[in-house]
Each structure stands twice: as C-alpha cells, then as structure tokens.
Write a structure and sequence with these properties.
CATH topology of the largest domain: Rossmann fold
Radius of gyration: 25 Å
Strand content: 15-25%
Strand order of the largest sheet: 9-6-10-12-13-14-17-18
Number of strands: 23
Shape: globular
C-alpha cells in the first residue's frame, strides 16, 4: 500500500497499477510497469517492473512520473492462452504437484501463490511446442514439498504409472524443491520395471521473475522426457547460468543450497547426463537404463513409522526410547565420519541400538558427511556398533534415500534378516560399488 502522498500523485496523473510509466529524477530515468507496494514495503517507495523482469524501488522524493501507452491489466495473473502443441512431436504427460515452479508472485504481499492450472506455467515457454506434445496435464495434489509425506509419494507414483502405461513417451513431474529429492527417491523405489523417463523438475524462483530458472529447467526436462533414458531423475540447472541442466539419478541427488539455481548436485555419483536447451544430450554416467516396452508397476507399500536421526556431540540416545514408545519400527541414523555414533561415553548410542536390535528393530547408519561411505571395521567403536550391536551399514546412500528405502522395505517385511538383505541390495542405483574420485563436489 502506497502512502497518501503517492496515491494522490498517481490519482492526479491518472495512473493505476499495471500502467506503463516513465519515472525520472535528475539524470536518472526508468521505464516499466507500476507495481503495487507490498504490505511490508516502504509506502513512500514506488515499485516498477523493468523490461528485464526485475523490480526496482524508487524513493518518491523529487521524482517525475508520466503515463506511457500500454498497460497490464490483471497484474500477476496469466492470460487465457492455449498452447498449440504439435501432434507430430512425442506425446508426454505433465503432472503438477505445486511448489515454486507452479507459483506466481502475489504483488500485494510480496509472497507467492499457487497457480490454478498446470498449463499456466507453460504459457511463458513457447519453446515447448517444438519439443513435445503435452497430451495430458493433471494436478493430483497441490502441496509445497515440505508439507508432503509418503501418502503423496504414493499418489504421484500411481499417477505416473498410469500415464506411462497409457501411451505417454515420458512423464514430467513439477514439484517443490525443498524435498524434491525425497520424492525422487520414493518414485525410484515405487516404480517397478520402469521403461520410460520420469523427470522431476522444479525451480528456485517463480516463473514470472526475471531470474526464474523455470523455463530452462522445463525445456531441458522435456528433452529428457523424450530421450531413451528409462530413469527417475531430477532435471535442474547445472550452473548458475542458463547454459545447461543436469539430469541426476533420483536416489543420488540432493538440494545443496537454499537459493542457488544450480542447487541440485549428484552425491557419490556422476550425473546421468548434461541437457542443453537446444536438445543436445551429453551422457556422462556409464550406467543408464534404456527405454523398453515393459509395463510399469507400482509397488508403493511404505511404513511411515521410520525416524531419521542425527548424532552430534553429547546427543542423548533417550530420543530412541521415545520413538520406540510411539511405535516406530525402524531408524536411519546419520553417523559421523565412517559411520560412528557415540559409543564409549556417558550417552552411548551403541548400547541403546544393541538393545533394540535384539528386539528386531533395524538401525541403518548413513554417512553424515554425505560424500563417502560407511566402513564397519576401521575403528574399535565401529566394530562394536556393527558387529556387536547389529547396526546395518547404509554404505554410500544419502541419509534421505536410506530413510525412504527403509520405509519402503518395512512396508514389505519386518523380518530383521530380510531387512538387512534388502538394505544391502541395490534396487535403483542408490548404492555404488565403489566411489569414483570425480563425484566429489561435482
């Protein structure tokens, strides 16, 4: 909301929100669209959107403002534009689940709001018409990813399998970025006999911002969806520029920065491929499943009573007692270094783990360092934890991937010996036989 002084000035000039204006003060001059002031903004600062898409704020003191031809009505809303996809292009399906990529700025509050239809965020990307034929778009749920749980992963998996088995050459799943890697891991385990690409994509910045990564991410995701890679993966910016994206395996990728456009990086693995906006695909990983004609099946049984815990100096293992009292059936613990937990100390986690392992509750240790792998025998404390207490090595799995995998396994069996066997089985590329030097900080 602008101050009374600015409101009076705009009224005299017959200028309204969405009008194209020129603002000058001394030698400085700017042209752009007049924006509303946010609820928490300075009421004496005028906001305009420049042609670049970025907004700037100008102190109203001593300015001259004039109205230009042209205005933008219904600011912040998309026009009712129907994209005309080429039917000769490969048919793919779009499943929208929410997140920043499916949001626009609310120019009153300064925050973002969810788009009503999945087609809305495609309207700024006409390049898609020349890449794919989006035959179906659906919105099975609308959630920010931090609000999702296993029931939403199951819904997405069923929607993806339905589209893949109904003629789609591939599926793009738009999704929030915060917990995007959890959903990617879940789909990797839930979708059996995967025969086509399943491409999860998001954006760090909403699609109507000048610096949005949504357009390039979606264009690259479309190229992946028509490729011969039968993988579940995340396709996002590979650098801070708009030059290429990385398609990373769904069980080996993690969000590594809160804001950077290239936040999603491969961990303990190489990217599957570099994807360029012009359609060039540069495969990097030697282990990529190829497209087939198999029918995709959904195996989404999941035990939600699994906890993901992190050890730290002085951490009290009594938290495990609390979780067990609440009916939790399994644990993934982020161990330090080669897979340690506090052992020969006042608060010994090893003793508590030993007690509950004897009762059939599995404890999987994943590397807190993210990079590298668990080693069960280098130190005495490691031998006590794995050989005597019965903890299970998560090898080089990401903690989040190990969490999803253990929940999926416990959805099928509670037999501890079987759980051990399944944890050690590589189902979706989540375990690497050996760590390649080039994967560190790729």
């Amino acid at each position: 909301m602008y101050s009374n002084k600015i409101e009076s000035l705009l009224k005299r000039k017959k200028i309204g929100i969405g009008d194209n204006v020129s603002i000058s003060r001394g030698k400085e001059s700017y042209e752009g669209i007049l924006m509303p002031q946010t609820d928490l903004g300075d009421p004496d600062t005028i906001i305009i959107k420049l042609g670049s898409g970025y907004n700037i704020g100008l102190d109203s003191k001593g300015i001259k403002i004039t109205k230009n031809k042209g205005s933008t009505k219904n600011l912040g809303k998309t026009k009712n534009i129907k994209l005309k996809f080429n039917k000769k292009k490969p048919p793919i399906s779009l499943i929208a689940t929410g997140g920043t990529i499916a949001s626009r700025v609310n120019y009153k509050t300064g925050g973002v709001y969810a788009l009503e239809k999945p087609e809305e965020f495609l309207q700024n990307i006409p390049e898609l018409e020349n890449i794919v034929n989006i035959t179906k778009s659906s919105k099975p749920l609308t959630k920010m990813s931090e609000d999702m749980d296993n029931t939403h992963w199951q819904s997405i998996a069923k929607a993806v399998a339905k589209e893949l088995n109904s003629g789609a050459k591939g599926v793009i799943v738009s999704h929030g970025t915060d917990y995007l890697h959890y959903t990617a891991a879940a789909l990797s385990f839930f979708l059996k006999n995967l025969s086509k690409p399943v491409v999860l994509v998001g954006s760090q910045r909403s699609s109507d911002r000048g610096s949005s990564d949504a357009g390039v991410n979606l264009i690259c995701a479309a190229h992946v969806a028509t490729s011969d890679m039968a993988e579940v993966g995340i396709c996002m910016h590979g650098s801070s520029s708009d030059d290429y994206c990385l398609f990373n395996r769904g069980t080996k990728v993690r969000k590594m920065d809160t804001q950077r456009r290239d936040a999603f990086r491969p961990i303990n693995d190489l990217p599957l491929a570099k994807i360029y906006p012009d359609g060039k695909i540069e495969k990097i990983n030697s282990k990529i499943n190829k497209r087939t004609d198999k029918k995709v099946e959904v195996d989404a049984k999941f035990e939600p009573k699994v906890a993901l815990l992190k050890v730290y100096p002085g951490a009290d293992p009594a938290i495990i007692n609390w979780y067990v009292s609440k009916g939790y059936k399994g644990f993934v613990i982020e161990g330090s270094g080669l897979g340690h937990v506090p052992t020969q100390c006042r608060n010994s986690w090893t003793e508590v783990i030993k007690k509950y392992t004897k009762k059939g509750i599995p404890f999987v240790i994943a590397p807190q360092t993210l990079y590298g792998r668990i080693n069960e025998s280098v130190y005495t404390n490691l031998r006590l934890l794995y050989k005597e207490a019965g903890a299970i090595s998560g090898q080089d799995m990401l903690p989040e991937t190990a969490y999803v995998k253990l929940g999926w396994i416990l959805g099928h069996t509670s037999d501890l010996s079987k759980v051990r066997e399944m944890i050690s089985t590589n189902y979706a590329g989540e375990i690497s036989k050996r760590t390649l030097p080039g994967t560190f900080l790729y």
